[in-house]
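Protocol step 4 of 5: obtain the predicted structure for the target chain.
Materials: sequence only (see below). No template structures provided, no constraints applied. The aim of this step is simply to have a reference model before the mutagenesis design in step 5. Sequence pasted as it appears in the construct record:
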Amino acid sequence: MKSKIAVFTSTRAEYGLLRNLCKLLDSEKLFQLIIIVTGTHLEDEYGYTCDQIKKDGFSNLEFIHLSIKGDKNAAEITAELITKISKFFEDFNPDFLIVLGDRYEALGAVYSAFLKKIKIIHLHGGEVTFGSLDNGFRNAISQLANLHFTSLEKHTKNLLNMGVNKKNIFTVGPMIKDLLNCHESITHSQFEKKLNFKFDKFNIILTFHPESYIYDYGLEKLKNIFRVILELEANVLITYPNIDEGGEIIKTALIRFSERNSDRCFLYKSLGSDLYISSLKLFDVVIGNSSSGIIEAPLIGIPSLNIGERQKGRSTFGKVSNLDGSYKEMYESLKKIKEGKTPLSQPRNLQIERKLPSYEIIKILKEIIN
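Step 4 output (structure tokens):
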């Protein structure tokens, strides 16, 4: 008899990390996979990224629409999700629920699953981000989970310190390694054609999310970034922020800046995981406060400037410069990168990994189930 496994995804970044694992689960005779698709995946405002999941060819998809427009806050969205996903759990009755990371939507799914005695598998637990509410969401998920797959031994130790049983924790590495391993590089000209982007002498990727504990959600820091970009005459690729508290404020600022500087600024609701990895291989620097600047960027080798407190405490996977968000500090750092950079004639190359997280997870799940 097949074990029923539900995989939860509510954001573009989350799905990119889960994609290869989902494909492996779907190909295994031992498992019956269903992917729960919700959150910004189903919103035009954020790129309707469920289209990518559909294109990947999964046969069992459950769409849960949430009312995330208007003035709905995270608590209201989570409450709506719990109500709707509980009904799904009753109908499908999965043996396992897989969630990744630290989103409040994921916590809502886990809370419902826990009450229904569904075994919970948590990926990327034990990590730390003191500057974000996500830190509490992540730890709460870990406390409710039955199995844990971490990205570093350090994160495994953090879980042990939280009282998690050692036999239920497995260190498999960051899930992004799966995507990096199978990613096909494209050229600068191909990237330009796909996104209607225009490369110049200095090209920046900007991803900025609201800072939970700052009165202006980090808006002043973002304005300093805008100023530096214009001073250095850089072309910039900008992606939308998450739907966290303060997200609309940050998004509005990004839209206005892009509209006023449309010759140099290119704003996208979502790139999708493949094109985002392509950008990391082709651009000169990443700036902002996304976890991708802490994990993906250093693994690929692109210079990364982490701004502010949002990712404070998170372990890096290579060299990352942590800046406070002042104009002077950011200007000097970006100017140094601009003046010292070597022009990229080809995308950055990556070393192929033999031991990939998704394969390790499948192997362990088979052993547990059998």
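Step 4 remarks: The longest strand covers residues 31-38. The mean pLDDT is 93.
Proceed to step 5.
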